[in-house]
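Example protein was shown:

_____
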Amino acid sequence: MLTIAANCRRVPNEPAATFWEAVQSVSFVSHCLCYNPLRLGPQQFQLGHPDRYLLPYYLSDLANGTLTRTFAQELLDCMAIQINMRVPSGVSCGYMVGGRDENGDIVANDLTEMGMQVVDDIRLVYPAVGFCHTKGMPDRYLEKAIEMIGKGHSHPAIFNDDTVTKGLLHYGVPEQQAHNYIHSTCVEITPGGASNVWVASPYTNMAQLLLDCMDREYDSLQQLIENLLTNLDERIRVNFETQNRLRGLRKDHSMNPLLSCFVNDCLKRGTDIEQGGAVYNWIMPSFVGMANLVDSVYAIKQLVFDEKRLTLTEFKAILVNNYQGNETLRQHILNHIPKYGNDLDDIDCYFSVFTDHIIEECRKYQGIHSNGNLIPSVFCWVMHERFGRETMATPDGRPAGFPLGDGSGPCQGRELNGPTASVLSSTKWEHHKLIGGVAVNLKFSKASLGKNSLQVIKAIVETYLDRGGFEVQINVIDNETLKWAQLHPEDYRDLVVRIGGYSDYFVRLSREMQEEVILRSTHEV
């Protein structure tokens, strides 16, 4: 406590001189930034890449004998506990390790491993740790990430540094800055220390857009898709105008002077972050239920246009009644019509039809501030459950009220050909232009883990990354454990699971969200 007090007398007012001072300064500043008297409720800011900016202090203190690796790990663990204590439920806050630095050199050092070890040491829901893997990185770092996941932890999430950097370069970020990014809350990528980015602004229910189009007959499936895309364009336009108007209101009526001191180029421009002082002012809409949309379009193709078993309006009437009296049809859809996630090109191709269109449509928009691009994403946070609750039955066999797909991968329980096929399907469309966030969930049975299981999981992850996958997050847990946690929540208060981009304690999820996690396909390796 005396050392902590002495550190506080020095940092952050003066530059840190030791590893302990540096860690304490980072914790103190990030905490203070979260509280703005002009905003209701705390904000969250990530801690960047500590295995880069803390490394000089760590190496210096090791060399002069004032620090051991064990105590350095304890300090990082304590900082992580501080994060967990201040972050509200349902939000996310953390840091990233690995990747490449501003010179393009691979970042792989003691702090990279220790930043992941934090997850096992504290076993709490936060911090949200992202491991950035890049080609040429020594195997032991990915193995460390898989080791943490194999113990049943929901972190780290594994990001593809090469894909993320490619995406940032695509949107005009200079190469040095493109190596310095952060997952702003869940999986949304923003340039570090230079952004006033509105992530998930807002979410769009893709399944509902299709349902809205099923109000009449069409001469062909292509005509239906064209009408859907027209309605999607209008939704993107309206949502952009709404978000831009809100940004204008904040420009006129708000400010954040402390935060502006830490975000380039606010000081250089003499402009508050709310007035457009940041270098990047992206708006990142997210499109939820993509897998439901793909599966539904394919079901319509087969039932309405190929087999002509029913008309589109007849299908819509069945959906309005939640398949009542048509359970045989629903089971046929679920069990006999192909689904996205099984390495079937005929259906997987529709995912890129929609994402390619979204990417091109978003390119047309520019916000009121400089670099105010519209950057799309296809992840969901918790919105798949909220949208699902509000959405009637869909043509893919999903009943009314059930959560939509949990990310960018297949819908719950539809991966019939194993995790490799799932990964192949999930990487048949471009990820790097969707740096607003791509989240692919995989779930493995903990009870089935054997001697070589972690190496198998590693190989599956490597396949995903080699094919340009953006981010993958993994749950290693058994459904029996989850069901017992539902019955005896008092005994499972520390059980953490991955949702749709962030992690949370299983027992404080809604019953619907708990069921959604249970119903995800569980693979044995």
Observations:
- The first helix runs from residue 2 to 10.
- The CA atoms of residues 31 and 77 lie 16 Å apart.
- The chain is about 45% helix and 10% strand.
